[in-house]
Design brief:
The protein is an all-alpha fold. 75% of the residues lie in helices and 0% in strands. The chain has 7 helices and no strands. Helix 2 packs across helix 4, helix 4 packs antiparallel against helix 5 and helix 6 crosses helix 7. The longest helix is centred in the last third of the chain and has 21 residues. It is elongated. The termini are far apart.
Length: 109
């Protein structure tokens, strides 16, 4: 809660760090450990979110971070937009892909 106020001032630095972390994916594990120990360093959480967009297996981690950072909804919206674009790409490839995306009977609605 206290670190949220600090994050508002440090949003400019967060964007710069996000670009750097995209190049260094090996440090994701270290960042996660730091987040638990240092709640004030939530900037690193945002960096992980961008990396997670490239690696869909880590989406579960994104959800946890979103709950902790309600003020960082701007980045969450960006992630949602990217996911929507990926979903559209699946639909363009054909109905067979839609079934794979849903993981169900293929009823998209």
């Amino acid at each position: 809660m206290r670190s949220r106020q600090q994050q508002q001032q440090q949003q400019q630095q967060q964007q710069q760090q996000q670009q750097q972390q995209q190049q260094q994916q090996q440090q994701q594990q270290q960042q996660q450990q730091q987040q638990q120990q240092q709640q004030q360093q939530q900037q690193q959480q945002q960096q992980q979110q961008q990396q997670q967009q490239q690696q869909q297996q880590q989406q579960q981690q994104q959800q946890q971070q979103q709950q902790q950072q309600q003020q960082q909804q701007q980045q969450q919206q960006q992630q949602q937009q990217q996911q929507q674009q990926q979903a559209q790409a699946g639909i363009d490839n054909g109905p067979a892909r839609r079934v794979d995306w849903q993981g169900e009977s293929g009823t998209c609605g």
